[in-house]
Amino acid sequence: MSKMLLSRIKPPQVPSPWSPNVRKLIRDTIHILQTQRQWQTSLQTQFDQSDVLVSDVAHLVLDRVPDAHLGLNFFHWASQTPHFRFSNGLAYSSLLKLLARSRAFSEIEPLMRNMRTEEIKPTLDALSFLVRAHADSGLVDKALEFYSMVVEIYGRVPSVIACNSLLYALAKQRRVDVARKVYDEMLERVGGESDHADKSSTSIMVRALCKEGGVDEGRKLIEGRRGGGFVPDVVLYNTLVDGYCKKGDVGSAYSLLEELKLKGLSPTLASYGPIIDGFCKEGNFKTIDRLLMEMKERGLINVQIYNNVIDARYKHGRTVEAVVTVMEMVENDCDPDIKTYNILIAGSCRLGRLKEANQLIQLARKWGLMPDKFSYTPLLHAYCKQGEHSRALDLLAEMTGKGATPDLACYTALIHGLVVAQDVDMALTIRDKMRNVGLVPDAQIYNVLINGLCKEGRLSEAKLLLAEMLDQDIPPNAFVYTTLVDGLVRNGSFEDTRKIFNLAVEKGIALDAAAYNAMIKSFCKVGMMKDALLCVNKMREEHNFPDDFTYSTIIDGYVKQHDMDSALKVFGHVVKTRSKANVVTYTALINGYCKKRDFRGAIKTFKEMQAHGLEPNVVTYSIFIGSFCKEGKLEEAAFFFELMLTNKCLPDKVTFYYLVNGFADYTPGATPKRTDESEENRKSMFLDFLETMISDGWVPCTATYNSILICLGRFGMVRTALQLRDQMINLGMFLDSVSFASLLHGLCMEGRSQEWKNIISCDLKEQELQVALKYSLKMDKYLPEGKTSEATQILQSLVEGYKSSDQEVED
């Protein structure tokens, strides 16, 4: 009886896949598919000679075929055989699994359409395969579609492995809400004990919640799953610990660590690591030391933990003994790596311990480690910062010789240091060396070089560097243009400034406020105020809003053009739109009034500035002093000088220049007294001493310098007084008795009476000491009531010492 007839008489018996004959048939079928060109004929012959129908083993063959192409070929051939049964869906489902394993996604949809037409349902296993394959490949929406198909057809969820893949993919895309719905459905739609969501499912979900800051929700999820055979393990606890730490709640993470230990679980490195990192950020080193001791006892401590702690100690300003730390790590069976040494080297360099940093590089080599660019760069920076550029150059050569290739950061540090040290030529040489080793200078390096050249007035070379950048397709950034524009402005190259600025605008460079301010300053400098205002408008169009410097520059520009009406108009706009002007803006306006000799207007503006809580600066006071001196109003000049000192504003060289030149021809009684109803008419200390010295025979220039020294000492500005003393010596002036008395008074006022001999020398003879004592007693009168100076006592002792010496000689 033929096989065809038998198949019609009795139901087919699906052969066991474990039958030796079936296994051999499957192996032979796959071998024929892989090796023979005429495989269709060979397969037909094989199955004709066999007692097994193609339809009975098609799904078994497809389960074992190594790739989708062979599987599709076999499936299409098998589907044409007379007895191939479509109704069971096994072959279709096995093909779906094969296509899923092979990621042949383009073949899946046509096959699914064919199955729907034939009303064949894919198996739960096949659909689980599809969910997993699509989720693992990032095709999350398609995976969700197949997930929903499983729920609709079978009333349950796919396999745990498939669901976990879907959860992971959703979490990766931060679709936590959707993941939570899938997870909840996994718990609700269970078809048996093996289908429960496992610990991996919970771990994925908790990690996703923690990543979004929902650590407490993740913790509740774990608590809600307790019982029923679910026991949280250390991995789940570690997930929560990491979540709390990333949220900045190290305290909760630490409490969870203690809870973990109480439940009999052994913490891992992943338990301690995030907590130690969190305490490092807080600088809680007391707790860190306790945790390190605990980790050491458990054998968990590693070099990364040590590195994080060492780095944190430096960042929080704690003392780190570098060599001792290395030895401590070695004793704890934790060998330092090159990152350890790099952290210690960087820390030593920040503290200025360059000798220690060099020792650490040698120590790293001794332990068989190869110092890299991160080892040398901090030292390179430190040498440049301290101005030791020859040592920095030697270090660069050492790096290259030892195989540690310097990177862009190393060269940038060295070039910047050389430019700061005003050695631009060497910086340019280093730039050339960079090119020789294949490193292309970036816009930052060009900016530093252009800045250095501009400061030295080498504008043609700076412009050549800009042209070089453009030729090499290195796009100059806003800083490069700003630096060059500012340098050209400072050197008065107006036309070049405008060309460079326009070039930047044409190239669409997003210039910042500094670049616009530099150009505005250039226009104001040459009196092109309309162009300056147009530049302000252009600045606004580019969303760079004018700042205090912008307005101060415009006001100053109008002042120099003697156009006070326009200056006041701009000032009014500033007050109206910016609530209040700053010191620079007020000072520019004061300068305008002074230039017009409108001192009433200047003083009114000065008082208005103070009423707005703004403290005048050295420029403000110097403008008043210089203007009053120029007009011969020396009483007013002296008043503003003492007001300056009273308000603790340090004078500078310009202030001293105005005073010395203004009082060069001073004659006591020739200057009319101040008559200002709004100010208290008190006696001027400066004029009092100046007049006394001139009456005693001092020339006005020397008397002025000494009067300044006396005032500086009285107002506690000894450092500035000593600088002025050095300036006097450089001008060829000899320090006399009054100079000595004034400096001594100042030192004693600062409580430095015991160290005066180390700061000022005394070569005065007895008569000069008597004069110094006379002026010291006069200075005492300006001290607060009831207060005396030790300076007078010291001078009296020096005078008495001379008298005693004279008496001994006479005897």
UniProtKB/TrEMBL annotation:
Repeat as a keyword? yes
Keywords, in A-Z order: Repeat
Q: Which SUPFAM superfamilies match?
A: HCP-like
According to the lineage, what is the superkingdom? Eukaryota
From the UniProt record, list the PPR repeat ranges: 88-122, 159-189, 198-232, 233-267, 268-302, 337-371, 372-406, 407-441, 442-476, 477-511, 512-546, 547-581, 582-616, 617-651, 701-735
A Pfam family: PPR_2
Q: What is this protein called?
A: Pentatricopeptide repeat-containing protein
Q: Which organism is it from?
A: Ficus carica
